[in-house]
Amino acid sequence: MRLDHQFLQSTLHTTPAHPIVMGSLVGPVPFKAVEDDGDTVTALPERLWEEHAVLIAALPSYTFVGMSNTKLCLYQGFWIYEGLVPAAAALQRRFAPRQSDVVVASLPKSGTTWLVALAFATAARHVHPPSAADHPLRRLNPHQCIPFLEGLFAVGHEGKLDALPSPRLMNTHMPLAMIPGAVPASGSAAAGGCKVVYVCREPKAMVVSLWHYLRRVYPELSLAETVDIACEGTMPYGTFWDHILGYWRAAAAAPESVLFLRYEEMLRDPDESVRSLARFVGMPFSAAEEAAGVVRGIVQLCSLDSLRGMEANRTGYMDPRVMFPREALFRKGVADDWRSHMTPEMAHRVDGVVADKFRGTGLTFP
């Protein structure tokens, strides 16, 4: 994924303006309502790439084999897309969440889109009942409903977040270390921070899903190459074990601030996963909602089959500059698909890394 100087410069606005005032609206509202207003920008300095050029030049970097125009940099122990290094630095310095915020976090291809949809449908259910014909998820891609933090901070557009009424939902693939404001160091909610919901997927399944996704733009990329970067720790946002364990340990230390979900458990019991999500963000389902089937309605609205059938998810691209088709987000959504693709040697290699890196952490992958 090319996120370089030319890309960043092409997306910057040069005419500052005041953020939209959303009046008395209560969030969450679909982010596309703010995203479409091109005048809603931050007043922060615009030349982000130039500000970080020296930093980026000094970082270890490599060009991903099979994706010759994709450069990753080792920033504070994690391999970050070159164009997102300024975002990581900006998030560390400037991300100041409201206590009512909910950050949906994950490694790529770990159930992100499904959790984004479930989180939005759950939090917005009083304004947008899941059965409503005009529900935002019936006309928008889930990622148009929730802002992508590093995408905004990479180009200095975090002011768009200020235009959203509370509670705000947002999404990130960044490791927890890049969003220190989200979880207070003391582990106490009284110290600030917000709610973080993290979804983790079995590593072999995550690697296979990542390979399928990247091949939509880089068809020459092999599964063996994708296994290599995962096991060597050089996959985007990796190492994958440090990424996962950062959130795992935070959830253990501050369960009121971080909810750690397992993708495979969500597949087995999506209804209970939605209930857990709602309780965690402080919006538990009432007895009347349970009786009316609201939980089941949210699960059905956000199911892979339902989302795959929406026009907004069948056409268009996640970003027209990169050309990842939206429909690539809705491939299978099942557990153990890796068995159809990985050789026994590949699976054994990933399992060996997992056994080594997760030993003694309490986190296992049956």
Automatic annotation (TrEMBL):
Its EC number is 2.8.2.-. It holds the Pfam family Sulfotransfer_1. GO terms for molecular function: transferase activity. It comes from the Eukaryota. Keywords: Transferase. Signal peptide: none annotated. Residues 100-362 form the Sulfotransferase domain. Belongs to the sulfotransferase 1 family. This is Sulfotransferase. It comes from Urochloa decumbens.
